[in-house]
Amino acid sequence: MEYFLQNFINALQWGSFYALIALGYSMVYSILMLFNFAHGDIFMSGAYIGFCIASLFIFLFGGVGAPGWLVMILTIIVSMFLTSFIGVLIEKIGYRPLRNAPRASAAITGLMIGIILETSNIAIFGTKRIAFPPLVETVTYNIAGIFITNKKIIIVAISLFLMAGLHFFIEKTKWGMAMRAMSYDFFIVPLMGVSLNVIAPLTFAIGSALAAAAGILYGLAYPVLDPYMGILLGWKAFVAAILGGRGSILGAALAGFLLGFIEIFTAMIFPSTLRDLIAYSIILIILTIRPHGFFGKAHSSSLRL
Amino acid sequence: MQPRYFATFYLNYKNMKRIIGFKKILGFFSAMPALGWLFGFFSAVIIEYLIGNNIAWLLGLPKIPVLFGFLIMLKKPLLIPGALAYIIIVYLLPLTLTARFFSGKINKLAAKLYKLPPPVYTVFYLIFLYIIIDIWAGMSDYRIVTLKLTFIAIILTLSLNVINGYMGEFSCSHTGFMALGAYFASTVTLILFTNDKLFGEALLPSYLAPFLFPIALIIGGIAAALGSLLVAIPSFRTRGDYLAIISLAFMFIVKSLIENLEVLGGARGMGGQHPLANLPTVFIWTILSIWIINNFVTSIIGKATNAVRDNETAANAMTINTRRTKIVTFMFAAFWAGVAGGLFAHVLCYVNPGTFGIKKLAEIFTMVYFGGLNSIVGSIIGAVAFNLASEALRPLELFKWIIIPVIMILIMIYRPTGLVAFKEFDIKKILAPKGDK
């Protein structure tokens, strides 16, 4: 039982990365009906930007003796802000000219932008892995035989907070209303005075900011950054976004956590090399039985990638 | 496309044409039939074979430029004039001379050949083409490997185009099929012809290997085709994004399965294959694949795949059995991907599951969408152009992976379906003699 609970907490942490990244995929899909395949690499860029900002802040505030949590929160906010510009840029250069093109072309463009991001990252930082600076000292609590580190609490809390914030933004604010309207029909809504050229960059910016937050939290939990980390997590989060149902934000978050649980618990029961095999087999079975994901609407046969 | 961009693009194109007399050059070469190009390249290759080293020495080059001088130009900028002169002397001069002086005679010869039955003159052309390629590649090992990988890329691109272009599904499982083919074919050849720790003594003497190699390839292809059922059957109910995910999951499952099978070497990979895939073998398999895939897409079932792509419900109403069409198309494309995988394994004499990952998949996608959907010529152009470009830009190291994606994004913006999309492939038209002007 203790072992189970221990893994439960690990799975919560692991799933929150997937959920944060999957939200970005899902939001872009709900507005523009296409998947931003560069999103995994935006996550990676966010982690590297976080690394630079954190190093800068440690250098600046190190003498003053600012508490670690303050530096961490500042780092997260600043890097989210900076990374959102990458998202806006990608929308403007890569996706806006392709808005009326076949969706497969947009998918290829996304893959190519991803490769460009990776390569420029290697050109700047080199192929070496980089250690993420430990912002918070690790404290381990022992609650009834379960070991919980403060980092795990911070990661799960921040990601839940961001998800709640996103929910609030989409449900309660005017911009959120515009986004919901746009996801309903992006041919009619521009006629009502809401510009797609404003809403789409906004969506990309929010998605990229969430990915950057996920990147920094990932760096906090596993303090090793390498240029190809976006590929693995990005594609898995993409799977989670589909599993939740296209364009469903709640579904993406839940499916992200579900994917984390599947992976951690397969690693608990079977040898860990079988993790991918079993996780993807489960996904294959789920999608064969329920082809439109958990919360997605059944789609017409004319829609294609 | 936004009109403003289009206007600037078009104007530049027009200016360029006027400045360098683009039309004149095109007109100069337009009288030349396919046979003329072959003769031109044949003479170029003969010149290079006989006195290439001497010319290179005279121009101050260390050795003959292996890939049309691209590598040398990018590595050592000082040698650019020499390399350019080499290309002009060895390649452009014979071509222009043939076009200038022998166009009429070659046209008459081509017209005579054209009166023969099509299979006969096609075979003649292919043999001629192979002779040229063989002489050209024989001058350095680097050329041989590049050519082999390019041919394999052609098979892969064509087979992915059958699913993604002709049937309109977005399948991401192609590297999975390739891995299945590679591993099954290698297992067969390792069991039969290699003294391996794992599979024991060789069952057959190794002089039989070249004759039984096609059977190994076909076994690999059939394994891939059977594996493709895992993707084809869910495709009855899903399409678009969900099928993309199912096929992606299939790819990861295959990769992960191979990594976990210690029998096949696990993540370390599997080596020790005989180098059975020599240039003629790869060439013959490529020609076979082009021929059979072209026949497939122009047959009734090929037209049915187009109908499924354009409107599945309407196709069903028109008595097309969409399920059968999907299964057959998936298995057919997977078969060729498996064959390409088997050839790939025997070119490198080593396979490892890491090769068949997302990166390889992105490469194949690039080739398909660069060349053009729904087009055999497009696939061939895409595969050859991508392979040559990625070899030629190799000296730039990292920047290669910025230049290629940027080109690709531009292509996607200006021609969203690829360079030569939706064109029929007609061998008779290509080989026909050109009328005199």
CATH architecture identity of the largest domain in chain B: Orthogonal Bundle
Strand order of the largest sheet of chain A: 1-4
Q: How far apart are the termini of chain B?
A: 37 Å
Strand order of the largest sheet of chain B: 1-2
Q: In whole angstroms, how far apart are the ends of chain A?
A: 45 Å
Number of domains of chain B: 2
Helix content of chain B: over 70%
The shape of chain B is globular
What is the CATH topology of the largest domain in chain B?
ABC transporter involved in vitamin B12 uptake, BtuC
List SSEs of chain A in N-to-C order.
HHHHEEEHHHEHHH
Helix content of chain A: over 70%
Give the topology, please.
The complex is a heterodimer of chains A (305) and B (437).
Chain A lengths: L1 H31 L6 H23 L6 H28 L7 H23 L4 E2 L8 E4 L2 E4 H23 L1 H11 L11 H26 L2 E2 L3 H15 L5 H21 L5 H15 L16
Antiparallel strand pairs in A: 1-4, 2-3
Helix pairs in contact in A: 1-5, 1-7, 1-8, 1-9, 2-3, 2-4, 2-7, 2-8, 3-7, 5-6, 5-7, 8-9, 9-10
Chain B lengths: L2 H18 L1 H9 L3 H25 L11 H6 L4 H22 L1 H12 L3 H21 L2 H26 L7 H20 L15 H19 L1 H4 L8 H20 L9 E2 L7 H20 L1 H11 L1 H6 L4 H27 L1 E2 L6 H14 L4 H17 L7 H15 L12 H5 L6
Antiparallel strand pairs in B: 1-2
Helix pairs in contact in B: 3-5, 3-7, 8-13, 8-16, 8-17, 8-18, 9-10, 9-12, 9-16, 10-16, 13-14, 14-16, 17-18
Note down, in words, how this protein is organized.
The complex is a heterodimer of chains A (305) and B (437). By secondary structure, chain A is mainly alpha-helical. Chain A has a domain at 18-228. Chain A is 71% helix and 4% strand. Chain A has ten helices and four strands. Chain A has helices spanning 2-32, 39-61, 68-95, 103-125, 150-172, 174-184, 196-221, 229-243, 249-269, 275-289, and strands at residues 130-131, 140-143, 146-149, 224-225. Chain B has 437 residues and is mainly alpha-helical. Chain B has helices at 3-20, 22-30, 34-58, 70-75, 80-101, 103-114, 118-138, 141-166, 174-193, 209-227, 229-232, 241-260, 279-298, 300-310, 312-317, 322-348, 358-371, 376-392, 400-414, 427-431; strands at residues 270-271, 350-351. In chain B, helix 8 (141-166) runs antiparallel to helix 16 and helix 9 (174-193) runs antiparallel to helix 10 (209-227). Chain B is globular. Chains A and B meet through helix 4, helix 8 and helix 10 of A and helix 12, helix 17 and helix 19 of B.
